Automatic annotation (TrEMBL):
<feature type="transmembrane region" description="Helical">
    <location>
        <begin position="387"/>
        <end position="406"/>
    </location>
</feature>
<dbReference type="GO" id="GO:0016020">
    <property type="term" value="C:membrane"/>
</dbReference>
<feature type="domain" description="PGG">
    <location>
        <begin position="272"/>
        <end position="374"/>
    </location>
</feature>
<dbReference type="Pfam" id="PF12796">
    <property type="entry name" value="Ank_2"/>
</dbReference>
<feature type="repeat" description="ANK">
    <location>
        <begin position="81"/>
        <end position="107"/>
    </location>
</feature>
<dbReference type="InterPro" id="IPR026961">
    <property type="entry name" value="PGG_dom"/>
</dbReference>
<protein>
    <recommendedName>
        <fullName>PGG domain-containing protein</fullName>
    </recommendedName>
</protein>
<feature type="compositionally biased region" description="Basic and acidic residues">
    <location>
        <begin position="1"/>
        <end position="13"/>
    </location>
</feature>
<feature type="region of interest" description="Disordered">
    <location>
        <begin position="1"/>
        <end position="20"/>
    </location>
</feature>
<keyword id="KW-0040">ANK repeat</keyword>
<dbReference type="InterPro" id="IPR002110">
    <property type="entry name" value="Ankyrin_rpt"/>
</dbReference>
<keyword id="KW-0812">Transmembrane</keyword>
<dbReference type="Pfam" id="PF00023">
    <property type="entry name" value="Ank"/>
</dbReference>
<feature type="repeat" description="ANK">
    <location>
        <begin position="47"/>
        <end position="68"/>
    </location>
</feature>
<dbReference type="Pfam" id="PF13962">
    <property type="entry name" value="PGG"/>
</dbReference>
<keyword id="KW-0472">Membrane</keyword>
<keyword id="KW-0677">Repeat</keyword>
Length: 430
């Protein structure tokens, strides 16, 4: 697909396949001449259109099906302004073509133009209600609901555009498609100007339909941009409300809040998420490395070995530089080394993954390897003799195996967390 996305439009000779607005092109495809001219379906004409773009614009379902039969990846071929055949079909309201393309390639509903607009954005902008309904039904069926929340380069969702266009029917379709548990948050999405959908309705009034649209948005939990964050979503219960109901409402509010701040693939910028993860991983690596140099309780500043000829004293034998905590409590010190090593090794693994493709990455990996061995050396150096073997095993074997273990245990741990959460809910309502 990278080759398709970087395919540069170039002027080519007029070809029967590009004239897909004529019935002749459909006969040309069905006649079986396509396999001998396979490369032509990848070419863009001087207007930035491929044969599939033209067939999609004309609504020729059979032609679209025949072209996709050659290579399904053609549905993601980008033409002028980054528009794919699905974008063109959405702009023209060709619902049958939309269903045909999406059934061949589900992921194409996520494709964006150079303005960051999806097929849903374009269908709303061109007021093609049938296309909007078809796309919403398809993304719901295909479990691609995140497409509803995608924003264009101005930060507008499809609901922003529908409200600006004052298209009540489209607004109803979009609002109903949003899952109930997240509807309040999603209808209050803000664009880059800090405006919600309700703000656009109020700022650009019209004579007809505003009242009905306003009521529909309010019913879905819409608020003005200035009010979002200053009001609570759950009202105080009456004195007759049971304690179980109150706890259930608080739990739901907490879940909604967590869902609101959870990273969403099509709402939040991956680059911002990577930057945040880099900061967190760096902080964890710094904190755990520092802890390896100065363990809890500090280290002995002198060496002491009791003289066998003298009476025993209460002071423990020790060597300068060894952990004081490890001298008196070997179990606690071993646990400290165990968890500190896990945190350090996982943070280094995250840094290694997040810096893939970075310049000077080899030098960065040398730095991380040096930190890794420095940490292990520091941990084993401060460990007293009676726990040194355990620390060596932890800092060598466990540290190397931790990233792989995390990947294996990720799903089982997530299932256990869900089970624990459901058990807590049942206990709260008993």
């Amino acid at each position: 697909m990278d080759a398709f996305e970087t395919h540069q439009p170039r002027e080519i000779a007029t070809h029967p396949l590009h004239n897909s607005f004529s019935p002749r092109s459909e006969e040309y495809v069905v006649a079986g001449k396509f396999p001998r001219e396979r490369s032509s379906v990848f070419d863009l004409d001087k207007d930035g259109s491929s044969p599939l773009h033209a067939a999609a614009a004309a609504g020729q379902v059979e032609t679209v099906r025949a072209i996709l039969g050659i290579d399904k990846k053609l549905c993601r071929l980008k033409g002028r302004d980054g528009k794919t055949p699905l974008h063109v079909a959405a702009m023209r309201g060709k619902t049958d073509v939309i269903r045909e393309i999406v059934s061949s390639c589900v992921d194409c509903v996520e494709d964006e133009t150079v303005q960051g607009q999806t097929a849903l954005h374009l269908a709303v902008m061109h007021q093609e209600i049938g296309a909007v309904v078809a796309i919403v039904e398809l993304i719901t069926e295909m479990n691609q609901i995140e497409v509803l929340y995608k924003k264009d380069e101005q930060g507008n969702t499809a609901l922003h555009l529908a409200t600006w266009r004052k298209n009540r029917q489209v607004i109803e379709v979009l609002v109903e498609a949003i899952p109930e548990e997240s509807r309040t948050f999603e209808v209050n999405a803000m664009n880059k100007m800090g405006l919600s959908a309700l703000d656009l309705l109020v700022m650009f009034p019209s004579e007809a339909g505003d009242r009905e649209i306003y009521e529909k948005l309010i019913q879905a939990g819409a608020q003005r941009g200035s009010d979002i964050g200053t009001t609570t979503n759950i009202q105080r219960t009456t004195s007759s409300t049971s304690a179980c109901q109150e706890r259930a409402m608080e739990s739901q509010s907490h879940k909604d809040l967590v869902k609101y701040f959870t990273f969403k693939k099509h709402r939040d910028s991956p680059s911002e998420a990577r930057s945040a993860l880099l900061v967190v991983a760096s902080l964890v690596a710094t904190a755990t490395f520092q802890a390896s140099l100065t363990p809890p309780g500090g280290t002995w500043q002198d060496s002491y070995t009791p003289d066998v000829s003298q009476n025993a004293t209460s002071q423990q034998p020790h060597i300068a530089g060894q952990s004081i905590m490890g001298t008196f409590n070997g179990i606690a010190f071993t646990l400290f080394v165990f968890f500190n090593t896990i945190g350090f090794s996982v943070s280094l693994s995250m840094l290694n993954i997040l810096t893939l493709g970075f310049p000077l990455r080899f030098q960065l990996q040398i730095c991380m390897m040096a930190m890794y061995f420095s940490h292990n050396t520091a941990m084993t150096s401060v460990a007293p003799d009676h726990v040194k073997l355990y620390c060596v095993l932890i800092t060598s074997i466990l540290a190397a195996a931790t990233p792989a273990l995390m990947r294996l245990l990720e799903k089982p741990i997530a299932m256990l967390c869900q089970l624990w959460d459901s058990m807590l809910q049942k206990i709260c309502c008993q």
